[in-house]
Design a protein that fits this description.
Distance between the termini: 53 Å
CATH superfamily: HUPs
Structural class: alpha/beta
Number of domains: 1
Largest sheet: 5 strands, parallel
Number of strands: 5
CATH architecture: 3-Layer(aba) Sandwich
């Protein structure tokens, strides 16, 4: 029996931490499906779902990961897993503060679908501080996010920047409402 896992997220944009988990999960499972949330309620989103899926697909192809599939998620995760005969959900934990939220989601998913397990993985420690929202903020304020994202993602970011005025990112205060870099 082949072991199939799903790695869900918004991936806006895909970070090196995300990609580290994709590579490592692809080694652990016969097939890994990276599911990209079709709907994001984040005000500071940067890319639409098709662009996010393209970034992931290009990064996976560049790395030669033949057992990784990219798909869109527009339903409950457990519903998606059941429809694709997936029995493991991979979730990333960067820092301790991620655990409470991820634990709550895992327990909820277990209640809804006890046959589906959640596997928590930590990215390489050199990526543990990298978040997609931080990258969005760096980019929108003109910083260089090259070392935080795979090469194909950086190309998408450059294309985004060619169509985006930095001033647009500054209107209304901090991008992503984090204020991480505007103090």
């Amino acid at each position: 029996m082949k072991k199939v896992a799903v790695y869900p997220g918004t991936f806006d944009p895909l970070t090196m931490g995300h990609f580290d988990l994709i590579e490592r999960s692809a080694r652990q499972f016969d097939r890994l499906i990276v599911v990209v949330a079709g709907v994001s309620f984040k005000k500071s989103s940067m890319f639409d779902v098709q662009a996010r899926m393209s970034m992931i697909r290009e990064s996976v192809d560049e790395a030669g990961l033949k057992n990784v599939e990219i798909d869109q998620l527009d339903t409950l995760l457990v519903t998606y897993c059941r429809s694709r005969n997936v029995d493991v959900v991979v979730r990333g934990l960067r820092v301790y503060s991620d655990f409470e939220y991820e634990f709550q989601m895992a327990l909820t998913n277990r209640k809804l679908a006890p046959e589906i397990e959640t596997l928590f993985m930590m990215p390489n420690e050199c990526y543990s501080y990298v978040t997609a929202s931080t990258i969005r903020e760096i980019v929108r304020y003109g910083g260089d996010a090259t070392s935080f994202v795979p090469v194909p993602v950086h190309k998408h970011i450059q294309a985004f920047l060619s169509n985006f005025s930095r001033q647009d990112g500054r209107e209304g205060g901090g991008v992503g409402n984090t204020g991480a870099f505007d103090r």
